[in-house]
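Ops channel
N.P.: pipeline sanity check, posting one input/output pair.
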């Protein structure tokens, strides 16, 4: 099996059943790994029930406590590499990322020469829906800020809907990725770019979650602002 979708969860009982069904309804041979940070709402139990329906395709890694988005993805990446997946995609559980777009992200890596494909809100054809104006301004401003500081040729560097070829994750020293929140996505793309991998942006429409609660916080935003400076400083002057 070569295609894995990693979905980190914390209190996603309202979404998890539907998002899993939606991925498998594509009938594109994706496997799904849920990395659940001990959700007290029973998200993990819902996944366990679905594993009977999707035996050999749906997997669950349970962690004790809320350890951060970045560490959840690193955990998932290592799990995927150990099981020889060739294409590893990360996405949210809340339908802000449309499962149907998984096919286009995979195609960009499998058939269009990309090493990393990014579901992008800020390239031609990309869009956002149902966002409050302040969140939209913050996100777009962050994308400009990242490019100004790091010079990375990616318009949506904070995007969390990303497909990686196996060789990218093998080359990145995952244990040295520093950030766990907002800056994690930036650091991963920046590291891949500096290693010489080709990044392709695929336009998507990002739709704000309808069920559950956003995990965004002031601390995550602060990490993003300061983290970008640290990422570029270390790139230019060493650690």
């Amino acid at each position: 099996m070569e295609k894995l979708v990693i979905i980190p969860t914390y209190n996603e009982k309202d979404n998890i059943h539907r998002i899993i069904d939606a991925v498998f309804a594509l009938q594109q041979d994706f496997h799904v790994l849920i990395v659940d940070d001990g959700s007290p709402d029973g998200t993990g139990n819902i996944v366990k029930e679905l594993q009977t329906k999707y035996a050999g395709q749906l997997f669950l890694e349970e962690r004790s406590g809320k350890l951060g988005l970045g560490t959840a993805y690193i955990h998932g990446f290592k799990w995927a590499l150990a099981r020889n997946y060739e294409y590893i995609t990360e996405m949210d559980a809340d339908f802000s990322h449309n499962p149907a777009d998984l096919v286009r992200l995979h195609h960009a890596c499998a058939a269009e020469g990309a090493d990393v494909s990014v579901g992008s809100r800020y390239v031609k054809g990309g869009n956002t829906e149902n966002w409050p104006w302040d969140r939209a301004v913050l996100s777009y401003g962050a994308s400009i800020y990242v490019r100004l500081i790091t010079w990375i040729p990616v318009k949506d560097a904070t995007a969390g809907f990303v497909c990686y070829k196996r060789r990218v994750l093998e080359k990145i020293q995952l244990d040295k990725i520093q950030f766990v929140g907002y800056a994690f996505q930036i650091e991963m793309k920046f590291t891949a770019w500096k290693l010489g991998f080709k990044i392709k942006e695929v336009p998507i429409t990002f739709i704000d979650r309808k069920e559950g609660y956003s995990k965004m916080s002031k601390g995550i935003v602060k990490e993003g602002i300061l983290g970008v400076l640290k990422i570029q400083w270390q790139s230019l002057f060493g650690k």
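N.P.: looks fine end to end. The first helix runs from residue 16 to 25.
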